[in-house]
Design a protein that fits this description.
about 375 residues; mainly alpha; three-stranded antiparallel sheet; two-stranded antiparallel ribbon; 17 helices; about 45% helix; binds zinc ion
Length: about 375
């Protein structure tokens, strides 16, 4: 395990302690509040139910990829995949049901299998250094630290610039560094417009400051608002009031008149509105987007997020099919591996391919 699992993972490996990374991490984030510190960034990645949602096929592929003997992998998969669960209802076990994925809690084998699976992510993240736009965290360059693992919790480190942070989201092979599957703007579009509804933090922040201003206009019963009214506004018209002696936070809040106007709010409206959420302002600032014809396929779809993601990339024409990879010179083989007959394109892969057609046939009958 020690030679197999990267040093950045400190849990579940014999001879390593989870405290190893805690000590290192303490030092890495020391002094973050200091002024004049060079830009640096730490992100915490929370994996939802990592243990229970581990896909068995994935685990098998990782073990094969790491070079475990095929027989050994079969033994392990035998242990992992023959699991049944039963739920206690009023103290009585109900009909057992078989598991489809996940690792058994309490099985002494599970922690090892978990770190083996995590090793894939570790090695994938290590290739970040191949991306020209990625810069190391100022205190991580010498040892080339990109992440620290605490079992399923991960801390990601980089320099505090947008390009470096985005490198985590825009993972690709180094040959295609200039070809992101989607632009950042696209990702922030609402789902109905073909985006992924990821929050644009800068815009959200502006909307949040607007909310402060709305609170001020409404003279909400809060101490800081009473204070601003009695010392700065002093009964004047608040719309356009710009007290030079105010602190930067109050100044910012009072200067949001333009932003609110841009979002389509007039002063009278602001006074009349009894409830104004940041989300509402954000949506107004973001503006309207033309809806895509396939929005009903994506919105309120109860399928696995991964399926919906692939479906959406397909609808956007952004899947890495062989015809597109060939255009970028990444791949020269064009023939569809499912039928060995035609070139692989989105149109072919999902609709025209004989293999897919037979699948559709089975599913729709
Ligand atoms: Zn085919």
């Amino acid at each position: 395990m020690d030679t197999l699992v990267d040093k950045c993972q400190s849990a579940f490996v014999p001879g390593r302690l989870i405290t190893d990374n805690i000590i290192l991490n303490h030092d890495l984030i020391k002094g973050y509040g200091r002024k004049g510190l060079s830009p640096r960034c730490v992100m915490k990645l929370d994996m939802q139910k990592a243990y229970d949602s581990l896909e068995w096929v994935f685990l098998e592929q990782v073990m094969v990829g790491l070079g475990f003997p095929v027989v050994f992998v079969k033994w392990i998969m035998g242990c992992v995949t023959t699991v049944t669960y039963s739920i206690l209802v009023n103290g009585r076990p109900m009909q057992p049901f078989v598991a489809r994925r996940g690792l058994r809690q309490g099985d002494p084998l599970s922690p090892f299998l978990f770190v083996v699976a995590m090793e894939f992510l570790t090695r994938k993240l290590k290739t970040l250094r191949l991306i020209p736009d990625f810069n190391y965290h100022p205190r991580c360059e010498k040892l080339q630290i990109v992440q620290l693992g605490f079992a399923e919790d991960l801390l990601l480190f980089c320099r505090g610039d947008i390009r470096s942070v985005q490198s985590y989201l825009w993972r690709e092979d180094n040959k295609m560094t200039k070809k992101a599957s989607l632009s950042w703007d696209n990702v922030c579009y609402p789902k109905s417009a073909g985006g992924f509804n990821v929050i644009d933090i800068c815009l959200w922040n502006r909307a949040a400051i607007c909310k402060h201003f709305w609170n001020l206009c409404q003279k909400k019963d809060r101490l800081w608002i009473q204070w601003v009214h009695s010392y700065y506004v002093k009964g004047k018209h608040i719309w356009g009031c710009d007290p030079p002696q105010a602190s930067c936070m109050v100044k910012k809040a009072m200067k949001t008149k333009d932003t609110l106007e841009k979002a389509g709010y007039l002063y009278e409206e602001i006074l009349k509105t009894s409830h104004l959420s940041i989300e509402k302002i954000y949506n107004k600032l973001r503006g309207d987007y033309p809806k895509v014809s396939w929005k009903r396929l994506i919105c309120n779809n109860s399928g696995y997020p991964k399926w919906i993601f692939i479906l959406q990339l397909e609808a956007l024409g952004r899947l890495y099919t062989r015809d597109r990879l060939a255009k970028w010179g990444v791949m020269t083989e064009l023939i569809c591996p499912l039928c060995d007959n035609h070139d692989e394109s989105i149109e072919h892969l999902f609709f025209k391919c004989n293999f897919s057609a037979s699948l559709w046939g089975k599913m729709l009958t």
